[in-house]
Structures are given as C-alpha cells and as structure tokens.
User: Fold these one by one.
Assistant:
Number 1:
Amino acid sequence: DQQVKQNSPSLSVQEGRISILNCDYTNSMFDYFLWYKKYPAEGPTFLISISSIKDKNEDGRFTVFLNKSAKHLSLHIVPSQPGDSAVYFCAATRMEYGNKLVFGAGTILRVKS
Amino acid sequence: GAGVSQSPSNKVTEKGKDVELRCDPISGHTALYWYRQSLGQGLEFLIYFQGNSAPDKSGLPSDRFSAERTGGSVSTLTIQRTQQEDSAVYLCASSLDSGNTYNEQFFGPGTRLTVL
C-alpha cells in the first residue's frame, strides 16, 4: 500500500532548462509535504516543503506546487544545473503524529551540461 | 556543529547473526527516527523516539527488530537472526521537538547492511 508514489524512476534534462518532478499521494490526512535530495553515499537533505493550507512555495530556483484535489505535488527546478543531479524523494506526513515521514521511491534527476 | 553520525557505514553479516547499528543524533535534538531504504524503494519508517515518551514502534517489520535510545541521545537499532530481506540502507534522522509543527529532520549517511 504505497501512500506516496513517484511514478517516474528517472528524468534527464538539459542544463538551463526546467526540471519537473512529480509525486502523487493517497492519504488525504497528510498535512505537510516535503522534497528531499540525496547524493550517493549520503543521507537525504531537506530541500523544500509545503503545508496543506498552501498551493505554492518558492525558494530560489525551487518551487513546490500542491494540488490537494488531485492529491498531487510537483517540484520545479529552474534553471536546472548539473549539480542538481541527484535522487529526489517526495515525502508526506501528518504533523500531529510525530512527523513520521512517508516517502516515495525517488526519481533520479540527471542534468546534462 | 556535527551532524547526525552513524556507525558502521557498512556491515556484512551472515544470515542468522545479530547486528547492532548505532546513531549519534545532533546534540539537543529530542526526536530521533530510524528509516530503512531497500533496493529500489523509498525510505520506510521504522521507529521514532521523542524525549522520554514511549517510542512509536509501529514501523518495525518484525519482532526481530528493536531499538533503544539511552539518555535521550545515542540510539542503537538491533536486528536479531538477520535474514537476507533485511539487507538495506538503515538511516537515522534527528530533529528538534516534533510537537504539532514540522521540524526538519536531519539525516545521517546511513549504514549499508548486507546479509549473505
């Protein structure tokens, strides 16, 4: 029972273009959503988040969009840089339950120079 | 300051043996989480400690798995009678008091466990 799904295992983008990573969830009780970035042999690092009361959050080159009716969120990276090449995990939680994160399987992003 | 550290970084063991994985959280972080990532999968929640409260063990896959947190700091995840399906990267994270708001979880580099 996968509550958080990332249906694209990988994505390849040219440097300078937009990268769009997608995530779907099934549990309507989730009220906080996050994106984590992971390089090989390192732990995931927090990238950006969004509360369920918002539909957009922007931080520099990174923007997360939330569509609650569709139970869908996306991460936009503009412009994409080679250093963005990593595995991106979508995660969701219900804050009152101790912030246990439910993760998707990840999307490998490759930014070509 | 130092981040979350985990040891060992790699562990190879034989089926049926017990293993202990260690996590040193960031100083002052009262919440500590264990996750694991099996090949091709996302991170899967295992157990959560918050201060002196009873841990949330709802993610532990079997009674072969247990964890302790001594003195509100270091945590040890123990897997008894390891099986090949236990092979995964085990990740520890810590955060400030979780409460009813989200506090960023900082992850360690993980321990890669291989059960032969």
Number 2:
Amino acid sequence: AQSVTQPDIHITVSEGASLELRCNYSYGATPYLFWYVQSPGQGLQLLLKYFSGDTLVQGIKGFEAEFKRSQSSFNLRKPSVHWSDAAEYFCAVGGQTGANNLFFGTGTRLTVIP
Amino acid sequence: DAGITQSPRHKVTETGTPVTLRCHQTENHRYMYWYRQDPGHGLRLIHYSYGVKDTDKGEVSDGYSVSRSKTEDFLLTLESATSSQTSVYFCAISESRRSTLLADNEQFFGPGTRLTVL
C-alpha cells in the first residue's frame, strides 16, 4: 500500500539556519515524489518534484530535495531559512498509472524565529 | 497560477442537510480531484475524475458523490452532511502527458473551501 511518513510534526528553526524536513514513502512501483507548501489559509503550492533522472532536484524559493531509493526517502532541504518560509510542508507520492492519485504525508509545520 | 476557483469558500450548515461544493477550472485539464484536509491526516483523496462523466472513488469516498458534466466543472456533493465531514476541501487539476492519457502527475490546487457542519 502507498503511504508517506513525515516524522516531524513541528520544527522550529532560527532565521538563517539550515533546514531539513524528512519524508519516507512506501510505494510498490517507481514513485513520483513531490513537496508542497501551504501558507496559513492558502492552497498548496508545488515546491519541487522528482520523476526520474538526477536524484537531487531543485525547486522554487531555494529549496532542494534528494531522492534516495535505498532509504525510501525524499528529504527537503534549504541552506538558509527566511522568515517567509514559515508554513506547513507536505510530502506526497504518486505513480505512473492512471490518474496518478497522490498520497500525502501528514505535514510538517515550520516555525521560523528571528 | 492555475485558473482554479472553488465556491463557496466558506460554508456553515447543519447536520442532515445536502451540500454541494463546486470546482471550476479554466485550464481545460483532463483530471480533477477532490481532497479533504484534516489535522493529523494531511490531504486525503475523496473522488477524482478522468474526463467528462468519468469519475472514480478515492481513499475516503463514503458519504460523498461527485459529478462532472463539463470539462471545467467538478462538483462534490454531501447528500446528508455529518459533523465528521467538517473539513477543508481542496480541488486539484492535472493534465495528461502529450503521448499518453496518463495524468501529468503535477497537480495544481484551488484555494479551498472551509465547511463546518453543526
């Protein structure tokens, strides 16, 4: 069965510090992996996606993620966090079949302190 | 931003009443989805559509029905709302890859509808 685990419910970092949000997935075939960000009261915005090829993918707003098949992980990173990065982050997994229904993790809420 | 609107944006209703939420897109995308978002659960798929009049169930479809009579509109109906259906509902759209009928895998989300069932 498909599933996504985001083990950190809430993370607090200082502005300017580095960030890593963890994501582990379970999927029976080649996964497509996504990170979305949601600001309070807003919809979801795609940060980055992995379909194939280079396992280090670059996204918007200075984010990157690395796909590690051996660890079933797709962790999100940013070298220097800005106060505007405070939001909720969702990892999702989908596949190549049919309508590509996505399975989301439960999210990680990021708080940035000055 | 993808042209996706949801209406209403907020609704308060009473248990047992019917409720219909509308998702409208201007992108002419083939695939449309309804999700609900609840604390501790992330987003869960309710129903999806892969074309006009073509729909299928998702992970949490009980108590919900959908209809798609036009490419641009995807309706979610709660026939008899219950308090457990209090949630934020998101619509999403996705396009087919040119060479196949498979969804493009990148989903674009609407702004959401906050539904409260008293």
